[in-house]
Inverse folding.
DNA sequence: GTCGCCAATCGTCGATAGACGATAAATGTG
DNA sequence: CACATTTATCGTCTATCGACGATTGGCGAC
């Protein structure tokens, strides 16, 4: 159980910044790929946004694949499952697991 | 929506450390109050543990009330609801909310 | 009243995060 | 081939985090 603590903490750390939350919301609201639009949406420097994207990608929360001259970012919600499960454990001490994942991640 | 980003980020930051996750698990597993036992359970210095407790309390994730010579800490799951809701939004883009809390927290 | 225990706070240190500008790499276009 | 565009990376600076020892404060015991 202790081994997963680091993993969960890393996931939580990825969410522990307003700019990254904004980016995730933006990715959620955007159907397809999205590139430099993120920069002006969050109002930070391009290098800063790129750094946040790198952190999110390192945490596995998003995936980025190069498509031509730009990079396509997409959400990877499966990475947040351990964190969601942990929070669920805390918020629902009586009901063990309220919802099981219907798809197994095979990264 | 942007105003809640800071709040969610703070909650996530409270979870973004293995030691704090351990403390939360310990509080979850311990029915009643718990005091200095946390110190030896996490294996850190007393001042360090106290600092983590302060951070968790500042984030609203736990509550601490003085009961005699020791302090009684308890979980406050309601503080994590915004974060859980945000994660739920990401993990289930198609199904809005997968599970509603069957009990309302009245801290 | 004095002592001992437990928790909180203070001060300090090293490590890390976050922001930025500047620069480099990759790719499609003329 | 040269150019423009887009993204990633580098270097630097400041701010914050995390850990610790030492000290202080509160409260019960004696």
């Amino acid at each position: 159980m202790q081994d997963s603590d680091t993993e969960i903490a890393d996931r939580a750390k990825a969410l522990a910044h307003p700019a990254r939350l904004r980016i995730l919301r933006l990715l959620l609201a955007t159907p397809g790929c999205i590139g430099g639009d993120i920069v002006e949406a969050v109002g930070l420097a391009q290098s800063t946004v790129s750094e946040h994207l790198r952190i999110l990608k390192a945490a596995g929360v998003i995936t980025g694949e190069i498509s031509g001259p730009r990079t396509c970012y997409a959400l990877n919600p499966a990475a947040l499952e351990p964190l969601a499960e942990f929070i669920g454990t805390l918020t629902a001490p009586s009901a063990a697991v309220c919802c099981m994942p219907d798809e197994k991640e095979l990264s």
